[in-house]
Structure formats: structure tokens, C-alpha cells
Amino acid sequence: MSVQAPVRRITAPEIASRKGGEPIVTLTAYHAHTAAIADELVELLLVGDSLGMVMHGLETTVPVTLDMMISQGRAVVRGSQRAMVVVDMPFGSYEASPAEAFRNCVHLLKETGAGGVKLEGGVRMAETIRFLTERGVPVMGHIGLTPQSVLTLGGFKAQGRDEKDWESILADARAVDEAGAFSIVVEAVAEPLAARITEIVKAPTIGIGASAACDGQILVMEDMLGLNDRVPKFVKKYGSLKDHIHGAIKGYADDVRQRSFPAPEHTYGMRKAAE
Ligand code: KIV
């Protein structure tokens, strides 16, 4: 009889300790199946609020609710064993006050079993990040393009294209870092700015459309698998799942229409009644 050691989950301090080391591999996941496949290949699975677009066909992440995040967070925790699971706090669940953010984060962590939360915003969210981290909630920051602000930004635009805008983004990075975030997602900023942010913060930076200068990378899994036609320019497709799924469903539909389907006697191994 072989006794297998239980698989231990990667923790927030372990992710934090990877600063400047081997790049941290992270992906989004929303389902138990995909989480199980990615588990041994990545260090961190993010249950991103991008699930609003990817799973629910929404135009933005604004309508995503805490219940939607809890439901998919549970699935990803169940599907994985090793990777740290971080769940996004959706728009409206953490901005009003640090105390409300704490209540919602604790509810989400208890319901899902995730190892941490992610929330968007720099200087404006620093007080909340400090409040949470001082009370036992591991927080991943998210600066640069913050998609939950789409209504005030007027669209999903790259940030800091103009050097004169760098200072406020650098201030965001410093504020989130000093508030205790264990890592920081940096979205849609040019390489020199991503490199500068990575240099000045002690937390590892996780880039998305922010060049290889970061300490790690994240992509939306369905985007890199080629399931989505509408993906940001920086996404490299590592698969063509849409074509694969289409081909498989077409094969099934053709079989059904041609009545070329396994008969129940094959499926169940039926025997003829004794004569
Ligand atoms: O919601 C999400 O998927 C994200 C990542 C892409 C960083 O926030």
C-alpha cells in the first residue's frame, strides 16, 4: 500500500517570496474542470470577475455580484489542490468602507475556501488593503487599467502611455505595496513603466498586457486557449479550443442526424432473454 503525502496549497507568503525569482505563472479559472487541468502547471489561479464577460456574456465586469464570485470560487477550490486560489472582489463589494470590505471578504473566504482576494485600485484603496491585511485577509492588488472603473474611464484603455501620467500609477503601486498586498496585478501599461513599478515595489508584480518585465504573468484562460474571438491585442493564443469544440459538436450533430449513435445494447451490454 502506498501512502501519498497530501498536496499542500501554495500560500500568499510563498507567492510574495517569489519576488525577483523564477517568474510566477498564473491564469484565471472559473470551473472545477479547468482548475484541475491547470493546477499542476501554475502557482496561482485567479477567479477573476472577467467571468462576467467570459461565462455570462456581459459587456463589462460591473454587473458581477459577490454570489457569482462565491459560486465559481467554490468550483475552482474544489477542482484544484496545489495552486493558490485568489477570488476577485466584484465592483461595489469593497469600495464603500474598509469595514464593509472586510465583512464581504471574510464571507467570500469562508464560503469558497480560497487563499486570498483581489481588489482593484491604488492610492484610493490603500487604507482598505491595510485594514484587510492587518486582519488576516491576504490581498492581491490591481493597478494600471482597472476594468471595474470602465464607466468612469469610458472604455478599456492602456494606462500611462504618456510619461506625464506615470507618477500617479507609480504612487498607486507604492500605496498598494506599503498597505501590505502580497502581490500586485499590473494591467495594460507599457514595458518601461511596468519595469519601474516592478523595481520599486517589494511585492511581486503580475503583468497582464504589461510586458515580460513583471515578476509573473496572468492571462484569461479562455482567451489564451482560443475560445474567444474578442481578445485584447496582447493575448497570445496557445490553443484553438473554439475550433476544437465546434468540430466535436459538429461530429456529434452529424452522428445524431445519421442515427450513427451507439445503441443501448452496446452501452449497457444487454443480453437477449433466455429462449
Ligand atoms: O478578472 C480578471 O480576469 C482579472 C485578470 C485578468 C487580472 O482581473
Task: Describe the protein in words.
- An 8-stranded parallel barrel has the order 1-2-3-4-5-6-7-8, surrounded by 5 helices.
- It is globular and about 80 Å long.
- With 275 residues, the chain is α/β, with parallel strands linked by helices.
- α2 packs across α4 (66-79).
- The mean pLDDT is 94.
- It folds into 2 domains: 12-239, Phosphoenolpyruvate-binding domains (TIM Barrel, Alpha-Beta Barrel), CATH 3.20.20; 241-275, no CATH class.
- The chain has helices at residues 12-16, 32-38, 51-54, 66-79, 98-112, 126-134, 150-153, 166-178, 191-200, 221-224, 241-257, 264-268, and strands spanning 24-28, 44-47, 84-88, 116-118, 139-144, 183-187, 205-208, 216-219.
- It has 12 helices and 8 strands.
- α6 (126-134) links the parallel β4 and β5.
- It binds 3-methyl-2-oxobutanoic acid.
- The site of 3-methyl-2-oxobutanoic acid has 10 residues, from loops.
Going across the biggest sheet, name each strand in turn.
1-2-3-4-5-6-7-8
Average of pLDDT: 94
Structural class designation: alpha/beta
- CATH-assigned homologous superfamily of the largest domain: Phosphoenolpyruvate-binding domains
Provide a count of the helices.
12
The proportion of residues in beta strands is 5-15%
CATH structural class of the largest domain: Alpha Beta
The distinct ligands, each listed once, are: 3-methyl-2-oxobutanoic acid
List the uncertain runs: none
The rounded distance between the terminal residues' Cα atoms is 47 Å
- Largest sheet, described in full? 8 strands, parallel, barrel
Could you state the order of secondary-structure elements as H and E? HEHEHHEHEHEHHEHEEHHH
Could you give the count of β-strands?
8
Q: Domain count, please report it.
A: 2
Taken from the alpha-carbon principal axes, the silhouette is globular
CATH-assigned fold name of the largest domain = TIM Barrel
Rounded to an integer in angstroms, the radius of gyration calculated over CA atoms is 22 Å
